[in-house]
Design a protein that fits this description.
The protein is 5% helix and 36% strand. The chain is built from one helix and eight strands; from the N terminus they run H-E-E-E-E-E-E-E-E. The strands form two sheets. A five-stranded antiparallel beta sheet has the order 6-5-4-7-8, with no helix packed on it. The structure holds zinc ion.
Length: 140
């Protein structure tokens, strides 16, 4: 795969999130899981925010979820020049955690809370992939 020019501000990789970004190179969405209270932990952390345990492991996610909430950004403040309007979404993953992302391949007027979504990927310049979401049934 050839590197593409950046379309967004690319997130830095902090040490605790290295497994997350490594998995994105294979287009796998992973989440930390607390083995003490049996729940997902997202964003990546050293400790479970509920019980403070460090007994966490990384698990693969299905990539399926639903649109929990969204807003539409009409202003472009992104130095890479990304153009608005575009949706900023909170996606509820099937595994029981929420992640902020964007919904793509869906006209803004088709966005609807609770709509089924699935992960899709945008290639970053260093071989990582950025998780985005699209309608589960394909392009709306
Ligand atoms: Zn816990």
């Amino acid at each position: 795969m050839s590197a593409t020019p950046p379309r967004r501000m690319e997130p830095p990789v902090i040490p605790v999130a290295e497994p997350f970004w490594a998995a994105t190179r294979e287009r796998r969405l992973v989440v930390q899981w607390c083995l003490e209270c049996d729940r997902p932990v997202f964003y990546p952390r050293e400790n479970c925010p509920l019980c403070l345990s460090t007994n966490l492991e990384w698990r693969d996610c299905s990539g399926e979820g639903s649109l929990y909430s969204f807003t539409v950004n009409h202003l472009s403040g992104n130095p890479t020049g990304a153009e608005g309007p575009f949706p900023v979404a909170i996606v509820e993953l099937a595994e029981g955690f929420r992640m902020m992302s964007n919904v793509v391949n869906c006209p803004l007027e088709h966005l609807e809370v609770d709509m089924a979504l699935r992960v899709t990927w945008e290639e970053l310049s260093d071989g990582r992939n950025y998780p985005l979401f699209e309608p589960a049934g394909g392009t709306a």
